[in-house]
Automatic annotation (TrEMBL):
Keywords: Hydrolase, Membrane, Transmembrane, Transmembrane helix
Name of the protein in its database record: Membrane-bound metal-dependent hydrolase
Keyword Transferase: no
Pfam families attached to this UniProt entry: YdjM (PF04307)
Length: 366
């Protein structure tokens, strides 16, 4: 998920009552909710190296065990040598509650990252397999609304804070209203939700009522996540059955979310020799529920030329990340141009999910 969602989930846990467990609780929760993304520094270097490292060891079981201790220790040291030196009268942060909050928030990060179709290598460094929940789009505004409601009510007090939340609210509302992917009823529901949050904040509510709002929003958020996961599994079964009715037996079906609309799924069907792409819309009538969203794309075993391209050092990370690969070989005067794609993200000739390897006639990378 995006780091805004991670941060809001961490802050929401604080507003739901956990911030009363110890001083610096909310800070710990927000930091922990983002901490596994310390591998994000790799984007500053080679993009393939970034793919090789991203959502790997810092998101795996070893990190889930170690990172909370590092975070709790760092927060406790900061409290002892910075905060309380400046304000010795303040209550000291307590290490063991900080550690429990660190475990909770760090775990939330890996859980949310598993929920989308990018995947996460949760068993690293012992096993490099990718795991996918295929439930939430990597940027989900409904998560922002549910996780952020109580946070806005509690935090939007200073002018700069009000301005920041206002900018964020306008930006996310624009994203919802000006995309064709969001049906009209969901646009109306979004406006009602934003208006309700703004109204409660303007009226002002007591901190205990904020906790109640946070609890209700949190339960709703968890139910939403469970429903999205169950919806993707339902979509896979329905599309598989629909394909069988067309006389085709799929080898595998994977349903992923589309942005802003929880009632649709982008479905990839693995058939002999090809991928087929179906958009499932539960709000459409029976005749329009299943729609081909893209022409079929070949799915073939890699040829010797493709195998040489897959072995090229400059795409090691990309090859490790591939889930649904397709290949295209373009013969040139002095060699080959091999286009590698993952049809989760790339179904045209370029864009995210696409890498190109140039080979000479001896199948060596150039």
């Amino acid at each position: 998920m995006d780091n805004l969602a991670h941060s809001l989930v961490g802050a929401w846990m604080g507003e739901a009552g956990l911030k009363r467990k110890t001083p610096l609780a909310t800070l710990t929760l927000v930091l922990g909710a983002n901490l596994p993304d310390i591998d994000g520094f790799t984007v500053l270097g080679n993009s393939d190296t970034s793919l090789l490292l991203r959502r790997g060891i810092t998101h795996g079981v070893l990190a889930l065990a170690v990172l909370p201790w590092m975070l709790a220790g760092a927060v406790k040291l900061g409290d002892t040598y910075l905060r309380r030196r400046r304000h010795p009268e303040k209550e000291p942060a307590r290490f063991w509650p900080l550690l429990l909050l660190s475990y909770l928030s760090v775990f939330s990060h890996t859980l949310l990252d598993w929920m989308n179709n990018y995947g996460v290598r949760v068993l690293m460094p012992f096993d490099g397999r990718w795991f996918y929940g295929d439930a939430l789009f990597i940027i989900d505004p409904w998560m922002w609304l549910l996780a952020g409601a109580a946070v806005v009510m509690a935090d939007a007090r200073a002018r700069w804070s009000i301005a920041g939340w206002l900018v964020l609210g306008v930006a996310t509302t624009g994203l919802i209203l000006y995309t064709d992917l969001t049906p009209l009823p969901l646009k109306a529901l979004w406006l009602v939700g934003v208006a309700a949050v703004a109204s409660l904040r303007i009226r002002g509510i007591h901190s205990l009522r904020i906790e109640r709002v946070a609890t209700v929003c949190g339960i709703t958020l968890l139910l939403y996540m469970v429903a999205m996961f169950a919806g993707s599994r339902l979509a896979e079964r329905q599309v598989a059955e629909w394909l069988r009715q067309q006389g085709t037996e799929p080898e595998r079906v994977a349903a992923g979310p589309l942005p802003a609309n929880p009632f649709t799924r982008d479905v990839i069907a693995l058939l002999p020799g090809r991928y087929e792409f179906i958009e499932l819309d539960w709000l459409a009538g029976e005749s329009g529920r299943f729609r081909t969203s893209h022409p079929p794309i070949p799915r073939e075993a890699p040829s010797p030329v493709v195998q040489a391209a897959l072995a090229a050092p400059e795409v090691k990370g990309f090859v490790n990340w591939l889930r649904f690969p397709t290949y295209r070989v373009e013969e040139q005067a002095d060699g080959y141009r091999v286009v590698l794609q993952d049809v989760r993200y790339s179904r045209t000739r370029s864009g995210i999910g696409t890498e190109v390897v140039e080979l000479d006639r001896q199948l060596r990378p150039r």
